[in-house]
């Protein structure tokens, strides 16, 4: 009888350790997918993870102990952000590194962001300070755990992106663009990664490759392709793409000028809070370009842009006020505060 119980217990441990189809196992992979899909605009990246309970914590720790890379990646993120556990830089790094060396693309992405000198401080939690990281830079064996070198970030991003991690593609492209000693092959490689991310429906990748096609930066200039990608991003609410389209249509530098379309895109970006778009649509309303002349609307948008520090917005608003009636100014000031 005792032998049967022992065999049963061993079987349970083996099932869990090997990642058999347990509820916790599925929750763990759901967690990992959410970590890998973190967005550029979140600080820190939004990681919506299931509420941790003692049983689940025990299970993913056991899986991690037996070398399950997904469990190690999930534990690394939890230790980084204090999700169900106390923030622990040592545990964070050890779990990420072990998972990354096994080829886990999520851990590789997260390590890339830790190594990335352009992302490092924004990506860390307030509990994990520079002094904390300094204290765990070396493992007990003397191996380097973490340094803030762009070369290391590039390595991890490349390894993750090569496995199809779209976020890593975008981060790698950004890193290549931001290198201080820019080489043509860096820009070309950045464009290639942005395009791959765009083709995988990443909105930021669509924005960046759209800009590059329009400017002929890293790729041969192709305005049609640039506008195509910018529209893809803008139609899904990327405000930078809305602004870029407005500017392209207004200036007509790379395409036929269309002030009405410029006004449409500026207005969308302005409604989404972009100060430059608010200033630009305000000026169009003031001059009656692309939209009917409306001093009140112009004043409202210029005031909102000025409140956010948009260059020349305050001057344009003050100049406009001299052309308005006292009643119009009163209405505009009231509307601007709404």
TrEMBL record:
Q: Which InterPro entries match?
A: Mitotic_Regulator, Sel1-like, TPR-like_helical_dom_sf
Q: Where is the composition biased (Polar residues)?
A: 322-338
Segments for region (Disordered): 313-338
The UniProt entry, under SMART domains, shows: SEL1 (SM00671)
Look up the domain of life of the source. Answer: Bacteria
Q: What is this protein called?
A: TPR repeat
**Originating species:** Vreelandella arcis
């Amino acid at each position: 009888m005792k032998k049967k119980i022992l065999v049963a217990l061993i079987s349970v441990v083996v099932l869990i350790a090997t990642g058999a189809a347990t509820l916790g196992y599925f929750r763990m992979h759901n967690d990992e997918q959410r970590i890998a899909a973190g967005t550029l605009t979140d600080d820190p990246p939004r990681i919506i993870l299931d509420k941790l309970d003692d049983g689940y914590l025990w299970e993913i720790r056991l899986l991690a102990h037996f070398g399950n890379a997904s469990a190690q990646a999930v534990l690394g993120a939890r230790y980084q952000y204090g999700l169900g556990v106390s923030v622990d830089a040592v545990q964070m790094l050890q779990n990420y590194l072990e998972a990354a060396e096994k080829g886990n693309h999520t851990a590789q992405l997260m390590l890339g962001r830790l190594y990335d000198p352009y992302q490092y401080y924004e990506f860390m939690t307030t509990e994990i300070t520079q002094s904390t990281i300094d204290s765990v830079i070396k493992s007990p064996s003397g191996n380097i755990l973490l340094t803030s070198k762009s070369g290391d970030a590039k390595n991890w991003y490349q390894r993750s992106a090569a496995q199809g991690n779209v976020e890593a593609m975008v981060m790698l492209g950004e890193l290549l663009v931001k290198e201080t000693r820019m080489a043509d092959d860096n820009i070309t490689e950045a464009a290639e990664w942005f395009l791959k991310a765009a083709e995988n429906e990443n909105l930021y990748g669509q924005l960046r490759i759209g800009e590059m096609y329009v400017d002929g930066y890293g790729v041969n200039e192709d305005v049609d392709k640039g506008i195509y990608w910018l529209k893809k991003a803008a139609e899904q609410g990327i405000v930078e793409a809305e602004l870029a389209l407005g500017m392209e249509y207004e200036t007509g530098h790379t395409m036929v000028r269309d002030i009405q379309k410029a006004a449409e895109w500026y207005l969308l970006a302005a409604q989404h809070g972009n100060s430059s778009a608010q200033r630009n649509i305000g000026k169009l309303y003031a001059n009656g370009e692309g939209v009917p002349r409306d001093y009140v609307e112009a004043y409202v948008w210029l005031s909102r842009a000025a409140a956010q520090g948009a260059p020349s917005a305050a001057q344009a608003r003050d100049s406009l006020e001299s052309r308005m009636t006292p009643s119009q100014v009163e209405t505009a000031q009231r509307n601007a505060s709404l």
